[in-house]
Structures are given as structure tokens and as C-alpha cells.
Amino acid sequence: MNAIADSGKQELLIGQLIDLLRIGNAHASFDKAVQGVSMETVGTKIDKLPYTIWQLVEHIRIAQNDILEFSKGPDYQSPKWPDAYWPNEKAPADKATWQKSLAQIGEDREQFINLLRDDEKDIFAIFRHGTGQSLLKEGLVLADHNSYHTGEIIMIRRLLDDWK
């Protein structure tokens, strides 16, 4: 296969991964899942479920940032697993804190997408600082992780009659 064909396939793969990160394809996107959620719902804990929507959103923010920073290079130190990846608070302190978390998720997602689009990066190359990870693998982990927890957010919203 020639380099032009390989390049076209890589661009197609990157485009599809970006769509998965942004719009979810076969499932609702993270942005859709949190759109219009009431502040009351965000901090409500349902019996027998381990997390509130706030805790899930913060977990997504923390884990996504970890994946982003790890993917940027070897100088990053990951938070302590699992404690530093989950907030103790059931609800944000206020609406501004909620909005800041959502904004950070969007900004970090776009930064990761910029890494994928960087012509200097080979998405298949194994990171020297990892244990077999590549930019492609981290992108797939990010999409998988966020979609899993996005589904949980939607389920909680449905159980609380806050999903249209």
C-alpha cells in the first residue's frame, strides 16, 4: 500500500475517532447527556447507585485530563488511583463550579483532538513513556470511558425524570 493510501486511511480513522469523541455516533454525546440537567438532579444520589451525576462528571473530567496530559509526554504524573479520580462531594458547590467542570471537559476534549490532528504525531506510535500505549489507544480509551459514564448519566437522569 502506498503512503497516500495509508495517509487517507489514517485521516479517515482520525475523523471517525473525533466524531466518536464529540458526537457519540450510535449513542448520545456527553454534551447532550448533560444539556439542560437541573442543578437539583446533578447532586441527587439514587439508592443502590454508587454515584451522583456530579461525581460522574467530575470523574470524566479528571480521567480525561489524565489521558490528555499522559498523551502529551513523559513529564506528567498521574493522580493516585482510585481516590484522586473520584470526588467525595455529591454535588458541586454552585452552578459556576458545575459550569467550570463542563467547560474543562470540552476544552480538554478539544486539546486531545488537536493531538490527533497534529501532522507531527503518528497515532500508531507507541509512547516511550508508557507501557504500550499510543495516541490511538488513548483516544479509544477516552471515547470508551466517556461513553460508558455518559450512559450512566443518562440512566440517572431517566430515573430522576430529568431526561427528555
Structure description:
The protein is mainly α. The chain is 60% helix and 0% strand. Helix 1 packs parallel to helix 6 and helix 4 runs parallel beside helix 5. It is globular, with a radius of gyration of 17 Å.
Beta-strand content: under 5%
Report helical residue fraction.
55-70%
Structural class: mainly alpha
Task: Give the end-to-end Cα distance, rounded to a whole number of Å.
Answer: 48 Å
Principal-axis shape equals globular
Largest sheet report: none
Number of continuous helical runs: 6
Radius of gyration: 17 Å
The run of helices and strands is: HHHHHH
- Mean pLDDT over the full residue set: 94
Say how many strands there are.
0
Residue ranges: pLDDT <50 for 5 or more in a row?
none
